[in-house]
């Protein structure tokens, strides 16, 4: 991507694989980016799975549960054939898979497992001999690593099966067992969870892998259990938020989500149409059939079961069958209700809270807190709780879950050290990451503009070296992609749909508002400030210098991918062409050349990754370094020709490529800002 474009029982059932979209009531919830996911298991119907083998979906970190997992795996082999170990998720499949198979054979007897060299250099998943080796197995176990490696190796584009993948399905549909752990569990879904943290998911929604927006990424998986979406390392890594966001959206193509904890496995028996928990911890089952959009991008109506060892779920009826050794707990105590609050995404925090609810009938609500976001678990009259011999062995059914989004606490705060606060800009809320050195007194303000990844926190951290060196206060506003798409960030919001926008709505205005807020908080109305941005952040600053430089002492555009050249031959955003007269006339050009702009260029920034290479952009040059040099030379020539004041500078960081951290730490940054 170029950087310029840059209470009733829950209704659980075994769905048909033909996806029937739900109503679009949640289409716009949580900033969801609409995109298509190909279904690799297209054509595999629910009837086809009636004779399929079991699935053993392990949540990772299998230790004490390992023996039980492998008892199920080996018992489920087709015709007693070996389990094929598939380590395609590993960078070095042989280094993972061969010793794994050796351990299984040592523990359970020779012939229990065999390593299938899929993903090994020189092994083609479409070779007939490879497919035949797959067919000789009685089942398969996918090991951990990075799940997208598995899909790249076993699947063709648009979801078609390689010969090896077709052979895996052939064995599976004849009754061969399929298992996997960690990344090997994620691939069981189609789509599958491909990355992202819960904190980002509740803010950014569902995104495509590789998106510059942080969120939960979905990608095509292997689809061994149609209609389900699987997640692993679930409560240990606080991943339930990303699974909830996925099933609530329409894009997951699954109403049901299964989150499997570590040292635990979920055993799916297609013939009995059940799922069963084995191992030391639990499984969170999510049903989004009745989910509804709520205020401020939240939602409600999600239903949850938490199951532990021995518990079963009947897919067709939605009935939870607790382990026979568990005892039903007392009904809801309405005399004195109690809430339990916990940090939403902290390791095992939800599990601890669920155990508190199971032990105390008066605990009716659990609230996972994450700034303005709260994930609320409510006990209903239909909620039933069971407990076993120890506090870990619990079952909770029919909790309802909602995501509450509260109005954020607005108001800039600038304590010593690193901090996060927020400021309002029209209808938007901008996160502001700041850093104040311990010895800060009267130093300047540095406003730092992030690149195309919208990672203001990273830019704040990279600017700490400048803050400490220059005894400066740093603020890094975050212009997220949802609120500030490319035309509003890199291009400053000057134009929208071909029409000039009012100056008060330009994104540049947010920078000046931020400076006003900082000055007010610091009680220094004349606090000098400098603005520095890299890559996409450098792009917006060339346009800020052209249209709204304000009273910045210096505007430093580092390694911008494109710039606004001081001419009317090129159309905006590459030049002043096509703009209203007030924005593109000679007076506008004169003001631009008189602005305190520094073009700060790395002389090794010669690559083309994420660079706008459209014909219009190529006119500026073929690299960022060349474009910066050309823009400066054109500006200097125009100022000389017209006799206009010229306040630009050009500063080169020798030996640096397209790297904001190196640009900020380079000795020349002082010259770019202050000399």
Compact description:
The chain is an alpha/beta fold.
Main sheet properties: 11 strands, mixed
User: In percent, how helical is the residue content?
Assistant: 25-40%
Radius of gyration: 29 Å
- Spatial shape: globular
Detailed description of the structure:
α7 (198-204) runs parallel beside α8. 26% of the residues lie in helices and 25% in strands. It is an alpha/beta fold and 675 residues long. The protein has 18 helices and 33 strands. The protein starts with 54 loop residues before the first strand and ends with a helix. 50% of the residues are buried. The model is unreliable at 1-47 (pLDDT under 50). The strands form five sheets. Strands 9, 10, 13, 14, 15, 18, 19, 20, 21, 22 and 23 form an eleven-stranded mixed sheet that branches. A nine-stranded mixed sheet has the order 3-2-4-5-1-11-12-16-17, with helices on both faces. Strands 24-25-27-26-30-31-32-33 form an eight-stranded mixed sheet, with helices on both faces. It is globular, with a radius of gyration of 29 Å.
What is the topological layout?
Layout: E1 55-58, H1 66-75, E2 83-86, H2 93-108, E3 113-116, H3 128-135, E4 139-142, H4 147-154, H5 163-173, E5 177-181, H6 183-186, E6 192-195, H7 198-204, E7 206-207, E8 216-219, E9 228-231, H8 240-248, E10 256-260, E11 264-269, E12 274-279, E13 282-287, E14 292-293, E15 299-308, E16 312-314, E17 320-321, E18 327-328, E19 338-343, H9 349-359, E20 363-370, E21 373-378, E22 384-387, E23 394-405, E24 417-425, E25 428-436, E26 445-449, H10 456-470, E27 473-478, E28 495-496, E29 499-500, H11 507-522, E30 529-534, H12 536-547, E31 554-558, H13 581-584, H14 586-594, E32 597-602, H15 615-618, H16 624-642, E33 649-653, H17 660-665, H18 668-674
Helix pairs in contact: 3-5, 7-8
């Amino acid at each position: 991507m170029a950087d310029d474009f840059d209470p009733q029982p829950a209704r659980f059932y075994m769905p048909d694989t033909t996806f029937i979209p739900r109503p679009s009531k949640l289409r716009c919830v949580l900033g969801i980016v609409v995109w298509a996911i190909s279904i690799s298991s297209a054509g595999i119907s629910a009837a086809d799975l009636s004779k399929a083998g079991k699935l053993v979906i392990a949540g990772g970190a299998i230790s004490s549960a390992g023996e039980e997992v492998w008892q199920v795996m080996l018992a489920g082999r087709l015709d007693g054939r070996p389990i094929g170990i598939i380590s395609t998720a590993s960078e070095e499949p042989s280094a993972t898979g061969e010793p794994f198979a050796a351990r299984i054979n040592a523990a359970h007897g020779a012939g229990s497992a065999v390593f299938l060299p899929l993903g090994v250099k020189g092994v083609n998943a479409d070779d007939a001999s490879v497919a035949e080796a797959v067919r000789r197995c009685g089942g398969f176990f996918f090991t951990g690593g990075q799940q997208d490696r598995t899909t790249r190796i076993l699947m063709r584009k648009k979801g078609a099966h390689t010969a090896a993948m077709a052979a895996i399905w052939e064995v599976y549909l004849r009754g061969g067992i399929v298992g996997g752990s960690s990344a090997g569990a994620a691939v069981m879904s189609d789509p599958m969870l491909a990355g992202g943290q819960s904190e980002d998911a509740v803010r950014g929604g569902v995104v495509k892998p590789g998106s510059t927006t942080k969120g939960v990424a979905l990608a095509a998986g292997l689809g061994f259990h149609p209609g389900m979406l699987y997640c692993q390392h679930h409560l240990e890594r606080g991943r339930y938020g990303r699974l909830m966001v996925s099933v609530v959206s329409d894009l997951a193509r699954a109403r049901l989500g299964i989150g499997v904890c570590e040292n635990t496995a979920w055993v799916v028996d297609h013939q009995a149409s059940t799922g069963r928990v084995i191992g030391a911890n639990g499984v969170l089952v999510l049903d989004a059939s009745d989910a509804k959009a709520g205020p401020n991008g939240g939602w409600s109506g999600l239903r949850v079961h938490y199951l532990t060892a021995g518990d079963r779920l009947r897919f067709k009826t939605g009935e939870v069958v607790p382990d026979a050794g568990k005892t039903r707990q007392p009904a809801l105590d309405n005399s004195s209700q109690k809430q339990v609050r916990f940090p939403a995404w902290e390791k095992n925090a939800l599990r601890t809270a669920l155990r508190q609810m199971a032990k105390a009938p008066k605990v009716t609500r659990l609230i996972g807190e994450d700034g303005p976001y709260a994930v609320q678990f409510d006990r209903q009259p239909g909620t039933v709780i069971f407990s076993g011999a120890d506090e870990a062995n619990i079952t909770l059914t029919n909790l309802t879950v909602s995501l509450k989004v509260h109005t954020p606490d607005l108001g800039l705060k600038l304590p010593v050290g690193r901090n996060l606060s927020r400021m309002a800009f029209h209808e938007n809320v901008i996160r502001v990451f700041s850093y104040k050195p311990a010895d800060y007194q009267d130093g300047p303000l540095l406003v730092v503009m992030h690149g195309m990844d919208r990672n203001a926190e990273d830019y704040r951290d990279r600017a700490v070296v400048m803050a400490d060196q220059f005894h400066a206060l740093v603020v890094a506003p975050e212009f997220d992609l949802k609120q500030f798409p490319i035309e509003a960030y890199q291009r400053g919001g000057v134009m929208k749909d071909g029409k000039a926008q009012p100056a008060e709505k330009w994104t540049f205005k947010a920078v000046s508002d931020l400076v006003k807020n900082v000055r007010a908080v610091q009680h220094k109305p004349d606090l000098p400030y400098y603005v520095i941005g890299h890559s996409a952040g450098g792009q917006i600053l060339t346009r800020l210098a052209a249209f709204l430089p304000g009273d910045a002492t210096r505007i430093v555009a580092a390694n911008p991918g494109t710039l606004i050249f001081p001419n009317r031959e090129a159309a905006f955003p590459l030049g002043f062409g096509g703009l209203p007269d007030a924005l593109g006339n000679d007076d506008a050009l004169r003001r631009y050349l008189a602005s305190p702009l520094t073009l700060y260029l790395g002389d090794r920034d010669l690559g083309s990754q994420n660079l706008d290479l459209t014909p219009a952009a190529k006119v500026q040059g073929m690299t960022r370094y060349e474009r910066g040099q050309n823009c400066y030379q054109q500006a200097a020539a125009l100022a000389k020709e017209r006799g206009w004041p010229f306040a630009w500078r050009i500063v080169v960081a020798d030996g640096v490529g397209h790297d904001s951290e190196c640009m900020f730490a380079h000795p020349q940054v002082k010259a770019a800002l202050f000399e």
